[in-house]
Amino acid sequence: MLALASLGALPVLPGLGSGCIGANRPQYRPAFIRDVDTSSDKAVQVVSNARMEDHEARPISAAAVGAALLSSGLFNDDDARELGAPLADELSAMDQREHLRIVAWADDAPRIYYLRIHDGKLRISYYKRGEELERFEAVVASAAVALGPTASASPAPSPTAAPGPEATAAPDAGSAVVSAPAPDAAVTVAAVTPAPTPAPKKKRPRKPRPALPAITEAEARRKLHELDAALEAGLLVKVEYKARRRAILARL
What we know:
The chain is of the alpha+beta class.
């Protein structure tokens, strides 16, 4: 019979500590294409994820994207306000094999979200340590065409007889001067046609950069803790803090 006490204290293997199971396990990283500028503390990138369906670029408003983020339960009001417009711009113009990747951070692990439009729906997938845990879909409404009141054609002249010549008194004579009536003006009827559906936005000039070297979850946690400490000590302003946080998350 084995005496377990004789084994002594076993060494703790890297990545197997409390709350870090799978933290150092190799994760799938999609092909990086470009960064997306935002005012958020989350990193946003355009990537090509070979494991995802094709993206179908179509016009979508910032309000619609913001509403979808909130309805998913995965984002807050600040995310909807800061990410709605930049995400809508990209979703309206990305290539078929491009996807949006958002990297956030929670106390226990990075949270990664992928956005794309497919089958007329905005799809948001939530991943934690390489495993998809949740998916949300929101129907992308077709662009509405605002139509004013229906223009009606001018009524046709009455078939009744036109009034006779109108007599006007001459300034220096007592006799009446008969003036001929002006010819009827031609009636132009303009056909009312609905405005065409807006075309997808033209792609903005890309400023690609090489993908930054990846870092481990443990290294990201250490860097973020140092960043938080610097903010609390007043060594950073909020804007700089968010920019540095985005740079760290972009490497996960």
